[in-house]
Recover the amino acids of this structure.
């Protein structure tokens, strides 16, 4: 599969995540974000792990726990806390800052060259998202802001470390996604029980919503996301992030009867243009590497955005 096709397939993940707001508001029980996070992550993780027919071994038990906590277990609760403490627009803008974290971390950890035009593309994407989602009534809350920033940093670190550690011999992106989703879901369970108590009663709409969230919005989406991380640079993957709030805005207009102002349409154009530009600026992806041992996984990996190959 060529790079364009890989980017297009990976982009389906953030596009799918844009449906989360509509499904949550229309189908799921209200005020149960942590229970929803568990229902998204744990069943999907167990299903993908079963389909992959592969369990972690050796150091991959703790590596999967670390990555699952960064990408899922910490990210989901902090994201929901931010969303509850802040207007949705402010929370979305904080989330769109994730690519900037990845650019910095990828330069430090992976050796990916932090080009100025890539940074500008990330900034332009966040600016475009702000035009789409921010309103004049937006209010700020310190706890919500901190939670939003830390959630973005958590997933950024998870994305970079997923790229850094690669995956063991014989384990594909299906297995890696399953391990991380399972670990992340298990991390959230005690927090959900402490904060929200017993699970709510579920009607038909809730079962339909959770089924969609588990299978499409999480299971397939995270499989595609981790597959993309394995084939593209970490920066290239994260620059697809603005597609999530853009997808949410389009779904709100098409399915929920929400209106889009001229300013929002301009912002969508800027964010989408920045996403496309970010992919054009990125170099060809590194070839997929299979590591024969934990030691090889732990060697320094240097990614050069100008020519792509992995150098050890």
């Amino acid at each position: 599969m060529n790079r364009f096709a890989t980017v297009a397939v990976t982009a389906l993940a953030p596009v799918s995540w844009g449906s989360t707001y509509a499904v949550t508001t229309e189908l799921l029980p209200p005020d149960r974000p942590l229970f929803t996070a568990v229902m998204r992550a744990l069943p999907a993780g167990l299903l993908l792990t079963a389909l992959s027919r592969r369990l972690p071994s050796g150091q991959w038990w703790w590596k999967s726990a670390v990555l699952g906590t960064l990408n899922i277990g910490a990210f989901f609760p902090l994201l929901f806390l931010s969303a509850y403490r802040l207007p949705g627009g402010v929370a979305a803008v904080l989330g769109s800052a994730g690519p900037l974290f990845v650019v910095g971390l990828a330069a430090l950890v992976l050796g990916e060259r932090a080009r100025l035009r890539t940074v500008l593309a990330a900034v332009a994407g966040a600016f475009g998202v702000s035009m789409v989602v921010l309103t004049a009534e937006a209010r700020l809350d310190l706890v919500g802001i901190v939670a939003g920033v830390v959630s973005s940093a958590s997933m950024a670190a998870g994305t970079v470390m997923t790229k850094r550690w690669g995956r063991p011999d014989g384990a594909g992106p299906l297995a890696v996604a399953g391990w991380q989703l399972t670990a992340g879901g298990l991390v959230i369970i005690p927090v959900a029980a402490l904060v929200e108590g017993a699970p709510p009663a579920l009607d038909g709409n809730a079962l339909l919503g959770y089924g969609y969230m588990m299978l499409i919005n999480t299971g397939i989406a995270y499989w595609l996301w981790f597959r993309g991380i394995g084939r593209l640079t970490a920066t290239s993957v994260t620059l697809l992030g603005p597609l999530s709030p853009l997808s949410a805005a389009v779904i709100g207009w098409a399915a929920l009867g929400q209106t889009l102002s001229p300013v929002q349409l301009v912002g969508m154009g800027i964010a989408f243009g920045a996403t496309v530009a970010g992919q054009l600026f990125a170099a060809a992806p590194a070839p997929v590497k299979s590591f024969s041992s934990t030691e090889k996984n732990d060697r320094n990996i240097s990614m050069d955005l100008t020519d792509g190959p992995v150098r050890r």
